[in-house]
Amino acid sequence: MNARIDEIAGAVLDRAGHSKRFLVAIAGPPGAGKSTMADNLAEALKAKGESVAVLPMDGFHMDNAILIERGLLARKGIPETFDVRGFLDIVRAVRPADQEVLVPVFDRSRELAIASARPIAPGDRFIIIEGNYLLFTQGKWAELDGIFDYTIMLAPPIEVLEERLWDRWRGYNLTEEAANAKVYGNDLPNGRLILENRRPADVTLEIALA
């Protein structure tokens, strides 16, 4: 296990103390490695005997039909293309640890969110929430300020994001033209928006830790 991941897991445990429920946020632009780090931190905490669940923000993408109607399909992933109210409701429902909460999960291969696809049990002490806008300072996303107990920001250099995003979209067998539109027409501009409008985090990293 990466020593830095183990160190962060230790810091999370120290801050959690005897808390029944502890929310960890992992934020960052598209391609930063948020889901990878969330899974690795979850495994590190489980190795220390803790119960952990991962809540991905991507499950709150608006459906493509709505985005088409609003002329936003090509910009899928920008702040306006998420159900931010629904996301806030779920995070607030998860906070007390007094009931099971079913959360949606995004299927990237089909570009759609699957409702009630992952349960978060009352006994899951640590909830790792990962997504682009967890530390975003604009719009309704700003209501997340103060709701997390520990925050991590992944902020790779733009050139690293660019390479990762090309790898992502080629992996889905997009044409070069389609991948180019995704990377330069949407993901990189969105990444800059996220990096330029973020609250300070407890930990900021240039690379996701394996």
UniProtKB/TrEMBL annotation:
Transmembrane segments: none
Keyword Transferase applies: yes
Keywords noted in UniProt: Kinase, Transferase
GO molecular function, one term: kinase activity
Keyword Disulfide bond: no
NCBIfam families with a match to the protein in the record: PRK09270.1-5
Name by which UniProt lists this protein: Pantothenate kinase
Native source species: Rhizobium esperanzae
Phylogenetic placement of the source organism: Bacteria, Pseudomonadati, Pseudomonadota, Alphaproteobacteria, Hyphomicrobiales
